[in-house]
Automatic annotation (TrEMBL):
GO CC annotations, alphabetized: plasma membrane
Protein name according to UniProt: Bactoprenol glucosyl transferase
Pfam families (UniProt xref): Glycos_transf_2
Family designation: Belongs to the glycosyltransferase 2 family. GtrB subfamily.
CDD domains tied to this protein: DPM1_like_bac (cd04187)
Cellular compartment(s): Cell membrane
Domain Glycosyltransferase 2-like: 14-176
Length: 320
């Protein structure tokens, strides 16, 4: 049990750090982590970098750092699989009693981790880092994120906490639970929420990136949001039944109305505009419905192939 961990025992902490073209930020990250943990004697640190197919010299930088710091391990994936897959690789390979997925760009401040460990020692199994201000994000990113959280949480039973990213502390039991989940398309935020466990949070202001640029543009975020909703809700598939019923009911009433009108006023030919509106409107609606079916079918198709989530090219360090 987590609660039995006495405050004075040594604990092994794994930092899981996905990196993709981050040659400018890795050294800054290690400096910052060292500053925090060199003065923490009770924490045995493992820093597990997942090099997610970087095309710059990130790997070289990492290996240089590893030469002088044996806490660093590097797992190199065979190509860019995306942050979710890289995180999955890290969670599967880390060995800490507690695990923290963290961005390398210092937007998830390592200074917060000792406080998270404090909460864990109180008996919590998950300690979320919650952003109290997102000034570092653009207005568009913030408001679209807000909408996404609202929509997602309306449609799913496992709610994603708002303003929470992947940065969190997890007990080993939570990591083991995540490893049990077999799906290959992994929306980590949703999976984290799905497994549950005793959760609390710590607030922080999200700083700007230490260097380099964000890897997520608008199109990637839109697809990320689609992934989130389709992974955890089938509501978009179901609304068509109700929309269909609604339109059938309306057209039935309309039919009665037209029949009565013909009986009372005789045959009335004009009606081109209203027919065109109905045809194009319903045509559009049907295409949207087919599109949504396609989103789910496509995902089912990919999932049915049971391909691995990621492939490892090489492991540097003692990870096996
Ligand atoms: N990242 C990754 N694979 C990708 C994209 C990003 O491993 O395909 C890593 C990236 O190196 C960083 C973290 O995910 O450590 C967060 O990325 P970023 O800072 O670009 O995202 P943002 O903070 O802008 O949402
Ligand atoms: Mg970032």
């Amino acid at each position: 049990m987590t609660q039995s961990t006495a405050p004075e025992t040594t604990v092994k902490l794994s930092l899981v750090v996905p990196v993709f073209n981050e040659s400018e930020t890795v050294a800054l990250f290690i400096d910052s982590v060292s500053n925090v943990f060199d003065s923490e004697p009770l924490i045995e640190l493992e820093i597990l970098f997942i090099n997610d197919g970087s095309t710059d010299d990130t790997l070289l930088r990492l290996l240089e750092l590893q030469n002088v710091d044996s806490r660093i391990h590097v797992v190199e994936l065979s190509r860019n699989f995306g942050k979710e897959a890289a995180l999955t690789a890290g969670l599967q390979m880390c060995s800490g009693d507690i695990v923290v997925p963290i961005d390398v760009d210092l937007q998830d401040p390592p200074q917060l981790i000792p406080a998270m460990i404090g909460k864990w020692r109180e008996g919590y199994e998950v300690v979320l880092g919650r952003r109290i201000d997102r000034d570092s994000d653009s207005w568009a990113k913030r408001s679209s994120a807000n909408w996404f959280y609202r929509l997602h949480n309306k449609m799913t039973s496992s709610k994603i906490p708002e303003n929470v990213g992947d940065f969190r502390l997890m007990d080993r039991c939570v990591v083991e639970a995540l490893k049990e989940l077999p799906e290959s398309r992994r929306f980590m935020k949703g999976l984290f929420a799905w497994v549950g466990f005793k959760t609390t949070h710590i607030d922080y202001a999200r700083p700007q990136r230490s260097a380099g640029t964000s890897k997520f543009n608008g199109w990637k975020l839109w697809n990320f949001a689609l992934e989130g909703i389709t992974s955890f809700s089938t509501d978009p598939l179901k609304i068509w039944t109700y929309l269909g019923l609604m339109f059938s009911a309306i057209s039935f009433l309309l039919a009665i109305f037209i029949a009565l009108k013909v009986i009372v006023h005789g045959i009335d030919v004009p009606g081109y505009a209203s027919i065109m509106v109905a045809v194009t409107f319903l045509g559009g609606l049907q295409l949207i419905g087919i599109g949504i079916l396609g989103e789910y079918l496509g995902r089912t198709y990919i999932e049915s192939k049971r391909r691995p989530i990621y492939l490892v090219r090489q492991i540097y360090g003692s990870k096996s």
